[in-house]
Specification:
By secondary structure, this protein is α+β, with helices and mostly antiparallel strands. Helix content is 42%, strand content 15%. The strands form two sheets. The chain has a two-stranded parallel sheet. Strands 3-4 form a two-stranded antiparallel sheet. Helix 4 links the parallel strand 1 and strand 2. Helix 3 runs parallel beside helix 4. The radius of gyration is 16 Å and the shape is elongated.
């Protein structure tokens, strides 16, 4: 799962955040960091990383687990528009490389259209579906 706010271990390095939480080897963790653009930041602690870099580390952790399904709760909220585009492209590349199904929760329609194969909009009374758009993009 990728949470709305990065849920990293602040007292552990980026590398340790991957190895401890996923069971990845040091080599696998370094590869995962490189995959998200954090090569060379393995020894940095989350507090030394920008919010965007923390989000990258969260993506690396999620994909390092090699999940069949990934749950993402507004993973790009609070980022500027350019960084959202960059992170969306990174996520799309990782998803394609790993072949993982994803459920993405977002309040941003453009983000859903860019990243989704199918969009389900929930609105109004709990459990009511306003629209279900297959092949959204």
């Amino acid at each position: 799962m990728v949470f709305q706010e990065p849920t990293l271990l602040p007292w552990r390095s980026a590398l340790q955040n991957l190895c401890i939480t996923t069971g990845a080897s040091v080599a696998e963790a370094r590869d995962a960091l490189a995959d998200v653009g954090l090569a060379g930041r393995a020894d940095d602690f989350p507090g030394q990383l920008s919010l965007g870099q923390q989000r990258r580390l969260s993506l690396a952790r999620a994909f390092a687990l090699k999940p069949d399904i990934l749950l993402m709760d507004e993973p790009f909220v609070s980022l500027d528009a350019d960084l959202v585009q960059e992170m969306s492209a990174l996520y799309a590349r990782l998803r394609a490389a790993h072949g993982v199904a994803t459920i993405l929760v977002t309040h941003v329609a453009a983000e859903a259209r860019q990243l989704a194969d199918r969009i389900v909009t929930l609105e109004g009374m709990p459990g009511q579906i306003k629209s279900d758009l297959a092949n959204a993009p």
